[in-house]
Amino acid sequence: MAALRILARASRSVSTPSLVVQRASQISLSNHVFVRDLHQTPVALKRKFAVSEGYDDIKSDDDGDMFGDGSSESSSDALNAKVSAGATRNGLRRKLSTTEREARFNKDLEFLSSRIGLKPRLKTPQPRHTAWQHLFQLAATREQMEQVVDLFPLWRDSKKQFTPVMAEGFVARCEEMRCPDLALQVFSDHPRYGFDLSSSKAARHLLHSLHLEHDLSQSITLVALFKLYELPMVTQDLVACALLMVACIKSKDKKATVVANSLVPELKKLLESKSPADWVVPKPKTPARTTLEGKEKSWLAWTLVKVEKALEEKGENVGWLRDWRKEAGHFRIVGPAIGLP
Asked: Where is this region: Disordered (predicted)?
């Protein structure tokens, strides 16, 4: 086992993040330094994770989108919609069988791997950025996603870059496959993979995934990467701040409690700067609820009620938090903190 030590350097920005493996980790959060052993242990998966329902439908006739000059790229929502549109036969949508999906994955993996790297075996046609989105969606197991990850260094060697949209797609798929630790592994080792955590949306999404089922050390490691990748610090990001507070509260660790307490005034400042009307959670089963923006509003509603409960149990005044939640309509989603288990 190894531990990560990330040194926050306020005097200069870091354009090429590089992590130093050490016995302990010192991570600067606001005005506090949280010192903790960060043990990186591989997650033992006893079974292969099945693909999520939302991505069962894969087009079988869209190879043309995988190559070209890659000069244009649509939003992540548009890409995901296109990839999950489904194969058609006589105008009817059908799902790829497990065998078809695996064959398609292997074909696309070979297509990409043979055309990237310092000395690619084939030079034409050149793969486009969307080739990665296809592979992300076709991967049905952690093992297959690891095969995709192994190709990341070759993309960098080809003098090509991963875009924010690609980071968002990668993180989203890792969450669906319940392997966000794999995404953290990639972003924590830039010299090896060359994949920037270049999107605040991707960073928040990954933090949400990690705080649900993984050790606090992984959330702390991710938060430290915000500065290295020149993203807004957790004390400047409302959703990230609330997610980290809940991760600390869940851990029951004394040092984590210190971090959570230090974030309370930061959370209060962030809420004072945000209009509750902008954070109303979209109604269930509506298109707005399924977007990443809609999900973030839902995450905030659930995290704030947990923060309120924790503060109230300590006898602290939570009027400022409860009033903001009520005005944002969060009581309609999760109710008041009183009586929560």
From this structure: 61-84
Give the integer Cα–Cα distance in Å for 138 and 83: 9
Q: pLDDT by residue (tens digit) across 281-319?
A: 998 888 988 999 999 999 999 999 999 999 999 999 999
Contact indicator for 25, 219 with CB cutoff of 8 Å: no
- Please tell me the distance from the alpha carbon of residue 251 to that of residue 126, in angstroms, as a whole number: 47
Q: Please state, in angstroms and as integers, the Cα–Cα distance from residue 3 to each residue in 25, 26, 207, following that order.
A: 7, 11, 19
**How far is it, in rounded angstroms, from Cα 309 to Cα 322?**
10
Spatial distance between the Cα atoms of 21 and 38, rounded to a whole number of angstroms: 10
Q: Point out which residues pair with 34 in neighbouring strands.
A: 27
d(CA 264, CA 93): 50
Closest to 267 (Cα-Cα) out of 304, 226, 319, 316: 304
Q: Which residues, listed in sequence order, are joined to residue 35 by a DSSP beta bridge?
A: 26
Order across the sheet with 39-40: list the strands.
20-22, 2-5, 39-40
Please write the tens of the pLDDT for every residue from 35-87: 333 233 333 323 322 333 333 333 333 333 444 433 334 344 433 433 443 45
Q: Is the pTM of this model over 0.85?
A: no
Count other Cβ atoms within 10 Å, centred on residue 242. 25
Evaluated on CA atoms 230, 234, 239, 245, the torsion sign reads: positive
Per-residue tokens: 184: 């953290």
Contact 36, 217 (CB under 8 A): yes
